[in-house]
Amino acid sequence: MNYLEIILIALALAVDATVYAFSYGMVLRKGRGRAALWLALSVGAFQAGMPLLGYLGGEALRTVVSTWAPWIVLLVFGALGGSIIYKTWQGEEEEEMAATALGFWGLILVGIATSIDALAVGACMALGNIGGPELNLTTAVSIIGGITFVCALLSFHSARLLHHLPTRWLETAAGVLLIGLGVQNLV
User: Fold this and answer.
1) Where are the domains positioned within the chain?
2) Which carries the bigger pLDDT value, residue 180 or residue 62?
3) What separation in angstroms does the CA of 39 have from each of 137, 169, 172?
């Protein structure tokens, strides 16, 4: 098994989750510790599970995912980012307007949106194009999920450095960042 290749792929796959975690970390004011842990667990689990599904689905799944993944990510991140921006500019600016922790379905949605490209990676693993001919699937998906977990957790908490800025502008920046990430995935 080619560990360096799996680690580099894991870092590349973790980018979407890391950017989302940073955006979320910029706007969330209360319950940060628990929210960061649940977010990191969610995106890490989906980043580990999607390659596994892709591996089991093989070539057919890779074709479908490569066609629709950018549009799905654009739709989800555009909706999340637009929602943040819309809610931010409603009414007067108050600290209470800061985002609340994601619920169960929100975590599921973010987990899927940030890891959908990992399905194609799993299909490539099945075809022997990634990880080498002696790929240990359990180890590979554990590395991918673990790296995503750590990156998301660190990114979420590093956003705390920006909390001295006005809430309204932080939330707007977070929304624009999510929309930009969706557009970047499409392009």
Assistant:
1) 3-186
2) 180
3) 24, 23, 20
